[in-house]
Input
Amino acid sequence: MKSHNVVIVEDEADIREVIEYNLKREGYRTAAVADGERALQLVRESLPDLVLLDLMLPGLDGLEVCQRLKADSETRHVRVIMVTAKGEERDILMGLDLGADDYLTKPFSPKELLGRIRAVLRRGPLQEGQASAQPLVRGPMLIDRERHQVQLDRRPVDLTATEFRLLHFLANNPGRVFTRDQLLSRVIGENASVVDRNIDVHVRAVRKKLGEHRDLIHTVRGVGYCFRNPAA
Ligand code: CA
Output
């Protein structure tokens, strides 16, 4: 049997070592890194079968890493298990929304760790098509991530790539308030031009295109923006 290749992303050295020790003993090939940037780089280079991804990382956090892996056609098929501390339930939900396959809450036993890994690997790599989420339906709005299309009252809405990512991200996490900085890092990326970095401009543009449904994106004064679930 081919031994599976697992990338371990964990900033706490002792946990990283315990995980690596247990996986190696089971015959997995492993590589470990301590931060998100290196995780992205390593996954892109080695295309492992699975990433064990700690959520709280210095710099680029686990959610961002997961989102970027799932947004990239080269890496979106890679299975992801999130590793979280207690009290990060909201992050777990968000991670699953972003395409993670499962999660483990610290502290976990080696048995639990290996059991989850086996279960996820048994599913094999994500197939094309499977990796894309079902279209998101929010009241009058349908967001098809696969086709990069938005329909409102069954009529197509013409959005730029950035506007699409912004609307999809907010609608995928309804009711949750995001600061401009969070939206900037999750939707736009750190390397964008100064013009692109202005979240308010993008929100204004999306709202204009949503017309009578513009209030789906709600401004939380002094904080940021939130998608209002039309069913709520
Ligand atoms: Ca951590």
